Amino acid sequence: MSAETKPKAELYKRVDALWAVVREQVAFLRRDPLAFASMVIAGAFVFLGVFGPFLAPHDPIEYTIRSDTGSVLQLASPSMDAFFGTTAFGKDVFSQFLAGARPTLIVGLFGGLGTGALGFTVGVVSGYYGGWVDELLMRLTDLTFSLPFMPMALLLLTFMTPNIWLITAIIVAFLWKMPARVVRSEVLSVRERTFVKSARASGASDLRTMVYHVAPNVLPIGFLYTAYGVAWAVAAQASLAFLGFGDPTMTSWGRMLRQVFESGNIRVAWWWVLPPAIGIAAITTSVFLIGRAYEEVINPEIQTDQ
Amino acid sequence: NSSRGESLEPNVPDGVPETVETKYWREWETVDAESPPLEYSATAGSVLDRVPVEYSSEDDPWMREHALMVKRGLNDLGVDVTLDDRPLNQLYAQSWTANGLEAVISMSSQGPDPQRGLDPNPLLMRATEESLSNYDNYYHPELQDILTEQAQTTDRAEREELVDQAQEIFAEDIGAIITLFPNIITAVNTDRWSGYVETPGNGQTMDSFVWTEVNLQPETDNRTYVKGVSTSMNSLNLAWAAGGAEAKRLTFIYDGLFDATPDLDVVPALATGGGFVDDTTVELTLREGVEWHDGEPFTAEDVKFTVELYDEYASTSQVPFYEPIDSVEILGDHEVRFNLANPDAAFMTQRVVRSVILPKHRWEDVGNPSQHNPDSPVGTGPFEFENWEQGTRFEASRNDGHWMFDDDWRNDALGDQAESGPGVDTVVWLNVSNVDALIGSLQSGSIDAVGTNLSDLQANRAANSEGIEKMSAGSYAPLIMKLMFSCPLIRDKEFRVALAKSLDSKGFVEDFLHGQATVPTGENLISSLTQWHNPDTTDYSYDVDEAETILEQAGYTWDGQGNLRFPNGDAWGAFVERIQPENTNQRRTELQQGDFS
Amino acid sequence: MTKFQRFLLKRLAISVVLTLVAVSVIFVVLRLLPGSPFETLVTSGNLNQEQIDEIRAMYGLDQSIWNQYLSYIESLLTFQFGYSILRSQPVWEVLEPRLINSLILLVPALVTTAILSSLLGMYAGWNRGSRLEKLSIVLTTLLRSTPVFITAIFFIILFAYNLELVPALGMRSIRATPDGYLETFVSLDFLHHYLLPFAVAVLFYSGDFLLLARNGVVEKRGSEFLKLHRAKGLSEFQQLARAGRNSMLPILTYFTLRLGMIFQGLILLEVVFSWPGIGRELVLAIQQQDYPLVQAAVFIMALAVIIANLAADVLYAYFDPTVSTNGGGSA
Amino acid sequence: MTLLNVEDLKVTYATDDETIHAVNDVSFSIEEGVNYGLAGESGSGKSTVAEALLGLLPRNGTVESGTLEFNGTDLTSLTDAERRDILWEDIAYIPQSAMDSLDPVMTTGAQIAQAIHTHRNVTDSKARDRVRELFDIVGLDPDRIDEYPHEFSGGMRQRVTIAMALALEPDLIIADEPTTGLDVIVQDKIIDKILEIQERMDSSLLLITHEIGVIAETCDALSILYGGKVMEQGSVDNVLVNPTNPYTMGLKNSFPEIDAEDEDPVAIPGSPPNLNREPTACVFERRCPFATDDCRESHPELIDLPNRNHRSACHRVKEAAQLRRDADEPETWDIPDTSSVDSERGEVILETDNLEKHYEQSQPLLSKVRGEEPDYVKAVDGVSLSVRRSEVLGIAGESGCGKSTLGETMALLEDPTGGEMVFDGDPYEHYQDGNLQSFRRNVQIIFQDPFDSLNPRQTVRQLVGEPLTIHDYRTDEQEHAIVETLEKVGLTPAQKFLDSYPHELSGGQRQRVAVAKALVLDPDFLICDEPASMLDVSLKVNLLNLLRGLADIEDLGIVYISHDLASLMQVSDRLAIMYLGRIIEQGDVDRIASNPKHPYTTSLLSAAPEKDPTTDRTRVLLDGEPPDPVDLPSGCAFAPRCPKAQETCLEAEPSIDQAGDKTHRAACYFPNGEQR
Ligand SMILES: Nc1ncnc2c1ncn2[C@@H]1O[C@H](COP(=O)(O)OP(=O)(O)OP(=O)(O)O)[C@@H](O)[C@H]1O
Ligand SMILES: Nc1ncnc2c1ncn2[C@@H]1O[C@H](COP(=O)(O)OP(=O)(O)OP(=O)(O)O)[C@@H](O)[C@H]1O
Ligand SMILES: [Mg+2]
Ligand SMILES: [Mg+2]
């Protein structure tokens, strides 16, 4: 093996190993039809999030749909001109639906990943080091628990102009506590396991032990909470947007719902309500279902009779 | 500043700066900032930076459409725009610190506050230097003088003359862009009641005036009139209320010294006559035989007490009334004299109208009136307080002896709209959480009228039901697009004119408001509904081609992609000249500049 | 001093410190907010600077931040929430009825769902793999994960607009004129308005309890001690009861925690249904920037969480015979 | 009369991808008043049989066929309600893991009372009286009936389950490994108790265990299970004295015995069969050294042997006597004889002097402020010992006496709180002071639990290679070093294992990987903390042999910690007996075995069961449990339980040099030898 190929081969091995872990982790999908269906929905959602804005036939905000006579088609039910009908100001609901997937995806994905990653890191560090580090971090989670998320988020968003990254950051800042606690308690039990002691006995540093021995063994819980984090983040983002604290520059599903609700049109414009509402419900539910199916697999206690 | 498109190499005449930043061009009394919160610079030959335009979609449901209209207009000129949808409070917050606008263009619709319809001052005086509301840093020396003068001219005719001039100057100079005066649209049940009175800025059912309620006649046995509203009163303390709803609804209970008719004419109320005796002295005779709802007689004492109380405890909602009053003297049981600090032309047309007089015997023992929430407010008004439940309902009953219920009196005040009959007995305001529910309640008969502004579509939807009709009334409250005058681009009058000509307000009103708005002739703040309107103002009518020509002649150019560029070379020199403080109110030709096209 | 008392004391101390920190955070965030309700008045051109200063002084906004902070802490901790800027009323007078309205909606909903869903969850867990189990899980997951306002909108469209079974909004019919809590809550009209938000709240929370109970029972069902119970000849139902009893503690703890988060969790529910509760009031107050009101509402919410956390820990320590009460970590 | 008759029982478990044939055609019967044993390695189906009898099979388990007749009624044909009536009333059950078999949120007394109430219509107070009585019978304090399970120790909990089983005086008690997981002394006491009570009540007992010794001592008849098949059954005297089945022979041989320290135990190589289909060949064929073509054809029938009450399932049952002789030779089982290379002991490599490890007990803040002395758990309390190269020092003692703590302190995983320790000429402070890595390189420790001592997310290559990476040792030939070490510990061919994850390995293989991980750095000193206690007998023997070999060939110094005296005797050169943090006896293995001086050692030795049913052993039962290590009695710590304790013992603590000579010392005022 030449000196050059070695790191490469090493890299491949790493990637391979990582891939194997992921494959191993999603193997449950094959067995659980519900989880599989959810995965399909989640996949469709990611597709929408990435390509939706390009697929939208019109600009969701600026383009106005007009009738043949040139007048604006306000609150028109679905037709060939507008598959999902139009809004009170003649905007294309279909285009808004397509474009609205993106902020939902961005906040969901990054909010979820951020929540998972931050919570995971805090949980591992806190659980592994114990002592005052633990005490400090856990009090911090207590604090974030006692600061009510919704009101605090609303307050923060009143003095900072909302944009999706800010919203993502706020969501992460409030949700990391959930995985942190669970991961920590998991780490506490992993830390006591013999192989960790054994790693120490063979001279591994704290960092090495934490990274190679503790972290990989709580990773599934981390994954699980990342999945839940995605669902929470989507829900939180939609809720904030619904209350009027969403990113005003982007069309999002939550914001669409706010506009129907605010404009007093839910009673009539079902075509305007259903797409975003079903979109949000479908994505949060499927992420949750995937998480749950996964939990079933990783939680040995509830799989006792298999 | 990285510019888009290809800019030209700056080519600058001697002694002319290559770049001009946004800055304060005058010392501003009301502004303490070192520099404006906006950063926008003009550089010779460079493509214009994106122009930030702010609005708040909370302001009006259609505000975003309006902003998009502005965006289209600017795009047509080759100017890119960043639309900034800001929370309403943030839009307001700029005025709190008063450092100026954060955007080049900032649009917001004004509330139809009765004061704004009665006198030109509330809107016009903002163009003066001393006004706290002048955070767009607009300054026009001539206008400044005229406005200061008219504010002290108590002679009506003289004043009207000055006000007309002011409107002309403002419109010609494009001190701001006034796109439209949106109508007030509501829906009412006409099967049960007749006699809805159309009042400008107030429609038939809003709460700034009581005309509809005193004029309504039942078509059925039921004499309780129920109005659904979506904003709730927060307290029963009219004078120290921070919100708008209580200041309006509680005027049903109280009377002012004078009142205004649906034609925005001043009519007597608690005061029956009087006026300026000299520039700073006003003497009024008060109505006799008036009783407070608790039976106590109303006297001059009450007026004096009220003004002093407001002044001592800084009433928030009655500022316009007591602000100019230096002292009050009682000349007799029913006669008072106000000594004003300065001559104030608006005193008789605006300030004493809709002023609220409190009963002394009720308020004199209140410790801190600003934190007082009377259990049951007592006034002299056409309605007596019955009960109030915050966020739920407010109820008032007819004060039968009140002069407004006198048919003759009403005939005088309302003209054609007056109707006679038994009238209402009780008025109930019900809080309904949203528009959807309001319409539903109106259709189901739970309420008789909607006291909230609806969109045309919604009103039509409501009117689909038997017995429900859409009501629409004009308004004197404009949508103002403030322009940041410290920004070099805005300081160029040629650009302002092009901007005004690029906006298709009429098309917008047709498309999105179904014609339910008035588009003014030019940039006139004063609506044709008021008595102060000047119809002969400069109208820069919608014409994009012409706008382009104007820009071209002023030296602006376009790059290959059609992006607008600042003038270059000599034209840049002319541009810099135009934006100097002494020239910013003048056109190119007035300055003897050539045609650069 | 027993171990338990010591644990209690430590937990209590932590809670007090947490309250202080949380309250300070709220203060800082609120002070960062620009503007105030008076801005509207300034914008309308009605006030001059002096008057503005005067009003600010009245609400203590002109004092040094430090002084404001101290008086703020003092007043919050003594439950003197001050005077609402917009409502010209003591904050507590504004909040009290809202609080009651919220509680009357949320507490019964939470209790109902805790009992029903836990029982159903236990039953589902016991019959693991059955259709009932699968269905209940999917259904509750759907209800749990969908943001509550969406469920609420669906319910409104379906039950209020299309079937017209119940009113869509509000707590009482708009023309009702009840006097006092008794008249407000004891009436058919109230019930009529109550059903929909109640049902949505119940369904929204059902997922957590159902899963918790189900997982608990599934976990216990394979356990050794249940095998011994079975060997002793206990009937199926008695076994389920034992499994349920063994899964009670997490449910109880969770219930307590949820109870603490109740106000914040369902802000959106109150907004959608226009339920005049504390959550909706808070959103309004935030929009209107009524500092004292926001401050008090957030404080109440934070306090509820802190107290509930404390209660959950204590209950856990108290009811679980095996828990170590040395107060080490608080889970 | 036959109490229980099992005929052709077949049980399968359905799993996601396959069906496990856990029990295949098992037949046996239990006469009234008889103690019956079921023995076999782990996974042989013992528990499954018991659960099938009781109708307690998990949901995925099915009784495919067979009859289960109890007192004439067929248990399989009963309705649930009928079965519930029989359960406990007639058949009681002592489950495998008493530790978790009690409902954690119900008081122990209530759980017993519940059993009574379910079947008898008695008042609460009657039931309570009965519970108190039962507590008394099993040797628990009747006043503790209102305590929760977690307030009892493992042994005590086991007694609670026994008390529960006795509550209704059933005809049959099924005890599934009632003593597994408990240490010898407690095990011995419990077995004794069961026997005593059962004698009194005159019920039958079905005892399930993998410890042949326990069966030999308690049962009248037994069945040996393997792969879900009965390999041999009959009276204990017949089966265990003269086994006729190669599996029984192997099983019996792999049990080390204390007295027979010269003779190396012989293990059965290989691992139990895969049960995912019904056996077509003899289930033992793959591991049987005597297998012929016949054996590959079919599983042999169970044949009645001429002598009464003895059946065996083996194709070569006729040659039994010859096979028995061959089976005693390690070569037969393909096991290399390692005992021949008996190297000299080298120089001292590690020495401790009065080593102490006290754990401070957490203390309320208030007392801390007051500056009160905290309480200490004196886990290791003044241990002095030395280990030479090529020597295996065994450390024995009952659970909780501080063995693991000692091991970990010697490995510097715990900081010593007192005393001296010198490794390779340098005091431990030297290492702690920045030279820890060199210590870690030379001293390795192997832990008890093979299932948990390997990171489940690393491959064997990563596992074994990690120490090399950490210490930058043989980095350029890492692969080679790994392979070499794996082969040294008997994982051949090493390539086959390199990319496996731990869960793909058997318990024995895992423990070998753990050993390889320790050996890859070529350490000088190895500490083994019960490395074999979780392994099946045959695997255990393999591991012991491996360690012995390492000491002899690689000149390692080894400390071997265990509570299993028998295996210690096999592997060690010298032995140290520990009691409550102290060494109370120390010396050469043979001298301690033949002549224990300390009464505690005597009782430890006597507690180990004998696999030969014909030998009788005298038990020395100890009273009570070890005292609380926080609150040690003054004087000899063992005195409160010592049968020979006198005044002197309570006054002052005897030192280790109190009795014996240089190669065999004991801390006792009245040592055995001297009294004789
Ligand atoms: N619930 C189950 N599902 C699938 N297979 C099982 C189940 N329970 C036991 N088995 C398998 O059945 C076989 C027999 O298991 P059983 O528990 O009866 O063995 P055992 O002899 O009691 O072993 P041990 O000594 O370890 O207790 C084993 O191969 C085991 O893996
Ligand atoms: N980290 C610790 N903190 C406090 N006490 C401890 C700690 N570790 C062990 N102990 C106590 O020290 C004593 C000795 O424990 P140790 O684990 O060394 O026993 P052992 O002989 O290995 O037992 P076993 O045979 O059960 O493994 C026990 O009383 C135990 O409770
Ligand atoms: Mg078993
Ligand atoms: Mg140990």
TrEMBL record, chain A:
Broad class of the protein's primary localization: membrane
Biological process terms from the Gene Ontology for this record are: transmembrane transport
**Cell membrane recorded as keyword:** yes
Q: Pfam families, per this entry?
A: BPD_transp_1, OppC_N
Question: Where does the sequence pass through the membrane?
Answer: 34-56, 105-129, 149-176, 218-245, 269-290
Membrane topology designation = Multi-pass membrane protein
UniProt-annotated location(s) = Cell membrane
UniProt keywords (A-Z) are: Cell membrane, Membrane, Plasmid, Transmembrane, Transmembrane helix, Transport
Q: Which Gene Ontology CC terms are recorded?
A: plasma membrane
SUPFAM superfamilies named among the record's database cross-references: MetI-like
Q: Which residues form the ABC transmembrane type-1 domain?
A: 101-291
InterPro entries documented for this protein: BP-dependent_transpt_permease (IPR050366), MetI-like (IPR000515), MetI-like_sf (IPR035906), OppC_N (IPR025966)
CDD domains associated with the record: TM_PBP2
PANTHER family on file: D,D-DIPEPTIDE TRANSPORT SYSTEM PERMEASE PROTEIN DDPC-RELATED, OLIGOPEPTIDE TRANSPORT SYSTEM PERMEASE PROTEIN APPC
What does the sequence similarity comment in the record state about its family? Belongs to the binding-protein-dependent transport system permease family.
Name listed for the protein in its UniProt record: Peptide ABC transporter permease
List the source organism: Halostagnicola larsenii XH-48
UniProtKB/TrEMBL annotation, chain C:
Query: GO biological process annotations for this chain's record?
Result: transmembrane transport
Compartment(s) of residence: Cell membrane
Please give, as recorded in its UniProt entry, the membrane topology of this protein: Multi-pass membrane protein
SUPFAM superfamilies noted in UniProt: MetI-like
Under the heading InterPro entries, the entry gives: BPD_transp_1_N, MetI-like, MetI-like_sf
Q: Which UniProt keywords apply?
A: Cell membrane, Membrane, Plasmid, Transmembrane, Transmembrane helix, Transport
A matching Pfam family? BPD_transp_1
Question: What family does the Swiss-Prot or TrEMBL record give for this protein?
Answer: Belongs to the binding-protein-dependent transport system permease family.
Q: Return the protein name.
A: ABC transporter permease
Its ancestry begins with: Archaea, Methanobacteriati, Methanobacteriota, Stenosarchaea group, Halobacteria
UniProtKB/TrEMBL annotation, chain D:
- Which membrane topology describes this protein? Peripheral membrane protein
List the catalytic activities from the record.
Ni(2+)(out) + ATP + H2O = Ni(2+)(in) + ADP + phosphate + H(+)
CDD domains named among the record's database cross-references:
ABC_NikE_OppD_transporters (cd03257)
Every copy of the ABC transporter domain together lies at 4-252, 350-605
Q: Which InterPro entries match?
A: AAA+_ATPase, ABC_Ni/Peptide_Import, ABC_transporter-like_ATP-bd, ABC_transporter-like_CS, Oligopep_ABC_C, P-loop_NTPase
* Annotated SMART domains: AAA
- Keyword terms: ATP-binding, Cell membrane, Ion transport, Membrane, Nucleotide-binding, Plasmid, Translocase, Transport
Domain of life, source organism: Archaea
Q: Bias regions of kind Basic and acidic residues — which residues?
A: 609-622
Q: Which enzyme class, named as a word?
A: translocase
Q: Which Pfam families match?
A: ABC_tran, oligo_HPY
Q: Name one GO cellular component term.
A: plasma membrane
Report the main location listed first in the record. membrane
GO molecular function (one):
ATP hydrolysis activity
UniProt cross-references to NCBIfam families, sorted A to Z? oligo_HPY, PRK11308.1
Q: How does it assemble?
A: The complex is composed of two ATP-binding proteins (NikD and NikE), two transmembrane proteins (NikB and NikC) and a solute-binding protein (NikA).
Q: Could you identify this protein by its name?
A: Nickel import system ATP-binding protein NikD
Native source species: Halostagnicola larsenii XH-48
